[in-house]
RNA sequence: GCCGCCGUAGCUCAGGGGUAGAGCACACCCUUGGUAAGGGUGGGGCCGUAAGUUCGAUUCUUACCGGCGGCACCA
């Protein structure tokens, strides 16, 4: 049977005809030796596959080279880097078993099973061997194996994880094996034509533990992370970016700007210093204003509750291990609150509530304690005692939609005031372990979905990630360097009002259960302030800056005048400090710049004489000379927090 | 919690079986200087905690505590 002719269409619209099945390798060679050399893979009807994959029918194709801008090329390179790393590891450490090794954002990793731990020195050896494997330019081939043959092969080799993996693959998938040199791995591909095409722009970055199949009950593997790019320039840009991110680390800035500290006797709790606490209060004051304007009622509920309450709410069963529990002098067992909702229900339950009271919104800057696992602690971002900008909205089922829409509007407006314009919403539906029956979950999920759509925010699904009592929305913001932070949340809860017996009298005169909406915008103040610090690299906007203005003198002659200016600023409500030290102005400018003070008012003999100030902005080169009254009133206006009028 | 690494002055870090060093910061003195480091002098450490090995431990071993990077967790 003769092959039927094949026509391929190139991205520029031109076509090429072949007598029979053909591969990207051939086509690239036909087009030119330069392309043949640069070709990494081929896109056939939009799908990225091996260059050597047969084209058996007419198709639109594109030969893919490393300079094609799209992310799939990077993914291809990174996945290959993972394979080259695995080959290097197994050459150097034959006792290491391979498991999984995917491309990830910015790089790749590979998980190995090996009794002996890898050391940082090992990374250097592995990286060196990787470069050798690239230099060997081993051809990479794809093979389809018989399933049982593959299982036996890997078992014989002592590669138990691979064998187990194949056994769990669906029966209808091809068992594709990629071979490079003497090494091979089970993989779906696609891959480069040879290891030489990987290039040199990769680097192994870190070593860590990881569980087999991501489950903490399974064996722990050793993961090696690396980064990989198209070329050295991109690699260096990435490494520079990492250094920059390190510089804006809130833990470092918190110390340098003396905002807060942490110490081991209080692991997981923050010691706020005056400057840090000023930021905190600015956030809290702002939130209080926003909540009041949105018809929330602020309350304060206890820290300690008896065990029975946690049993009734369901927290005892699910979160007891993560709670701080203590015994009082008698028989009672008390738990420090890990969340505020049971307390809010107690407030709701006082007196008889009518449908006319709904929606009733209780807000609390609630201090919570959770015994987070030691490995989870991270600066002030993940701590054991923290304060949520928490609120619970008690409403009817009919009110879910309007309350959700109002909340979404409030949240986006708050984020914008803090400088975050980019918000992503994730919709998390029922988790495998949950309270409440399926019919209730159906109702809650339907209501929330409707509400989300009504709010008009784009959202994506996050299946199985809901809270144990209800579905939730998670609000993710994007910071100045593109990182995503989940801060806000809105959770629909039909369960807790039932468990804690919250009720209102409806129009029909009968008692009904309210729905509870749990919601937070910032999440926790501690974490949110950490995010703010990193987002702004410490250079907070004027309204949040702990010290907004420093009045610095050039000579001692200006001291009296500087004090006058400082007092005027303070009287206008600005957070101001004066620097009358016997230091040169260069020194003062440098020091306050490093302290990230947004505005300096420099005064010398001239200014004192003329009643002016030289206003200098953080990071700015020029100064502006203004009458000091004018400077103060301008700054006062500029420093006003959003929504403060 | 798990794996790996780390813990020396306020900070960043060097050192190394015989009880320690640098830079910055700090204090004092000189300098009154016009927008990112003026000069000099000086003080400062139970080398994370506890046990073990040793004539002797900050250095080697072990355990614990804490930190860092991940993993797992995140109501």
Describe the protein.
The chain is of the alpha+beta class. The protein is built from 20 helices and 36 strands. Strand 14 (202-211) and strand 15 form a beta hairpin. The longest helix is centred in the first third of the chain and has 22 residues, at 71-92. The N and C termini lie far apart (84 Å). The mean pLDDT is 94. The structure holds one RNA strand of 75 nucleotides.
Sheet/helix structural class:
alpha+beta
Enumerate the spans where pLDDT stays under 50 for 5 or more consecutive residues: none
The level of helicity is 25-40%
Mean pLDDT across the residues is 94
The count of helical stretches stands at 20
> Which term fits the overall shape?
globular
| Spatial order of strands in the largest sheet | 18-23-24-31-28-27-25-26
Q: Which percent band covers the strand fraction?
A: 25-35%
Radius of gyration: 31 Å
Largest sheet: 8 strands, mixed
Span between N and C termini?
84 Å
| Number of beta-strand segments | 36
Task: Give a topology summary.
Layout: E1 6-9, E2 15-18, E3 22-23, H1 24-31, H2 33-38, E4 39-44, E5 47-49, E6 54-55, E7 59-65, H3 71-92, E8 97-98, E9 103-104, E10 107-113, H4 120-136, E11 140-145, H5 147-156, H6 160-168, E12 175-180, E13 183-186, E14 202-211, E15 220-228, H7 232-247, H8 250-256, E16 260-261, E17 271-272, H9 274-293, E18 297-298, E19 304-306, H10 307-313, H11 315-319, E20 325-327, E21 333-336, H12 341-349, E22 353-354, E23 360-369, E24 385-395, H13 400-417, E25 423-428, H14 438-455, E26 459-462, E27 472-478, E28 484-493, H15 496-499, E29 504-505, E30 511-512, E31 515-524, H16 525-535, E32 549-553, H17 559-571, E33 576-579, H18 585-594, E34 599-603, H19 605-610, E35 612-617, E36 623-627, H20 628-639
Parallel strand pairs: 1-7, 18-23, 22-29, 25-26, 32-33, 32-34
Antiparallel strand pairs: 1-2, 3-6, 4-5, 4-7, 8-10, 9-10, 10-15, 11-12, 12-13, 14-15, 16-17, 19-21, 20-21, 23-24, 24-31, 25-27, 27-28, 28-31, 29-30, 34-35, 35-36
Helix pairs in contact: 3-4, 5-6, 8-16, 13-14
This protein binds one RNA strand of 75 nucleotides through strand 14, strand 15, helix 11 and helix 18.
């Amino acid at each position: 049977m003769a092959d039927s002719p094949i026509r391929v269409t190139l991205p520029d619209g031109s076509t090429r005809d072949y007598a029979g099945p053909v591969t990207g390798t051939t086509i690239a060679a036909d087009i030119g030796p330069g392309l043949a050399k640069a070709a990494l893979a081929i896109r056939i009807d939009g799908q990225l596959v091996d260059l050597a994959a047969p084209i058996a029918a007419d198709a639109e194709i594109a030969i893919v080279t490393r300079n094609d801008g799209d992310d799939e090329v990077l993914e291809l390179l990174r996945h290959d880097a993972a394979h080259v790393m695995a080959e290097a590891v197994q050459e150097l450490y034959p006792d290491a078993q391979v498991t999984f090794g995917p491309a990830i954002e910015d790089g790749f990793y590979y998980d190995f099973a090996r009794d002996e731990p890898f050391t940082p020195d090992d990374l250097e050896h592995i990286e060196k061997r990787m470069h050798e494997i690239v230099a060997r330019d081993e051809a990479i081939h794809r093979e389809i194996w018989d399933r049982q043959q593959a299982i036996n092969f890997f078992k014989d080799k002592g590669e138990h994880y691979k064998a187990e993996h194949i056994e769990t693959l669906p029966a209808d998938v091809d068992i594709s094996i990629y071979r490079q040199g003497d090494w091979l791995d089970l993989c779906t591909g696609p891959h480069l034509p040879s290891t030489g095409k990987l290039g040199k722009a990769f680097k192994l970055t870190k070593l860590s533990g990881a569980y087999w199949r991501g489950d903490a009950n399974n064996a722990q593997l050793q993961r090696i992370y690396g980064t990989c790019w198209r070329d050295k320039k991109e690699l260096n840009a990435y490494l520079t970016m990492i250094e920059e991110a390190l510089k804006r680390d809130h833990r470092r800035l918190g110390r340098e700007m003396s905002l807060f500290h942490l110490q081991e006797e209080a692991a997981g709790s923050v010691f706020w210093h005056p400057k840090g606490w000023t930021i905190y209060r600015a956030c809290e004051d702002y939130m209080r204003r926003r909540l009041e304007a949105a018809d929330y009622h602020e309350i304060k509920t206890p820290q300690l509750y008896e065990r029975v309450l946690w049993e009734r709410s369901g927290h005892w069963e699910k979160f007891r291990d993560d709670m701080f529990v203590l015994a009082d002098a008698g028989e009672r067992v008390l738990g420090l609150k890990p969340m505020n909702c049971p307390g809010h229900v107690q407030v709701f339950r006082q007196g008889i509530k009518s449908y006319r009271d709904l929606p009733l919104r209780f807000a609390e800057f609630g201090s919570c304690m959770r015994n987070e696992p030691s490995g989870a602690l991270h600066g002030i971002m993940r701590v054991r005692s923290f304060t949520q900008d928490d609120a619970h909205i008690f409403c009817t089922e009919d009110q879910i939609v309007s309350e959700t829409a109002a909340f979404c509007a409030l949240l986006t407006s708050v984020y914008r005031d803090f400088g975050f314009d980019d918000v992503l919403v994730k919709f998390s539906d029922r988790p495998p372990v949950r309270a409440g029956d399926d019919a209730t979950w159906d109702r809650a999920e339907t209501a929330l979905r409707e509400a989300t759509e009504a709010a008009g925010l784009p959202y994506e699904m996050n299946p199985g990630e809901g809270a144990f009592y209800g579905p939730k929305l998670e609000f993710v913001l994007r910071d100045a360097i593109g990182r995503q932070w989940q801060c806000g949340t809105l959770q629909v809860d039909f369960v807790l009002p039932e468990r804690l017996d919250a009720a209102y009298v409806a129009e029909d005169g009968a008692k009904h259960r309210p729905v509870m909406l749990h919601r937070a915008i910032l999440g926790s103040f501690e974490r949110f302030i950490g995010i703010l610090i990193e987002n702004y690299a410490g250079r907070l906007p004027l309204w949040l800056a702990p010290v907004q203005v420093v009045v610095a003198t050039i000579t001692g002659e200006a001291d009296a005048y500087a004090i006058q200016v400082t007092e005027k600023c303070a009287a206008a409500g600005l957070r101001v400090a004066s620097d009358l030290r016997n230091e040169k102005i260069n020194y003062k400018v440098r020091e306050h710049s490093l302290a990230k003070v947004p505005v300096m008012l420099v005064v010398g003999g001239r200014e004192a004489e003329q009643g002016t100030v030289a206003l200098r902005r953080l990071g700015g080169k020029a100064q502006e000379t203004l009458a000091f009254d004018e400077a103060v009133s301008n700054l006062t206006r500029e420093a006003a927090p959003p929504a403060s009028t």
